[in-house]
Amino acid sequence: MKRENSLRGRVVLRWEEAGKQNWSLEKTIDMCIEVEAELQKAGFNHTPKFSSKIKGNDQRYIRNWVQGCHFKWINPR
Q1: Which residues contact 8 (CB under 8 A, 6 or more apart)?
Q2: Domain-embedded: residue 75
Q3: Closest by alpha carbon to 72, among 28, 38, 36, 26?
Q4: Per the domain annotation, does 73 fall within a domain?
Q5: What is the pLDDT of residues 20-64, one digit of tens each?
């Protein structure tokens, strides 16, 4: 799978394009939701459970899911 066709990969690309700024967890969540919608429009549905939790406004799940992605600017390994 191409990096730009995965949710995590596309968010990382956006972060890099923004100059590797120190994004907050909230900014990262917003970007994940935005990218997920873009991927849905493009016909990619690699994160169906995440998508359904966005639609259901399950903030706890969304927050935990994003933290589980281990974006190096919010929770490096």
Answers
A1: 69, 71
A2: no
A3: 28
A4: no
A5: 989 999 999 999 999 999 999 999 888 999 999 999 999 999 999
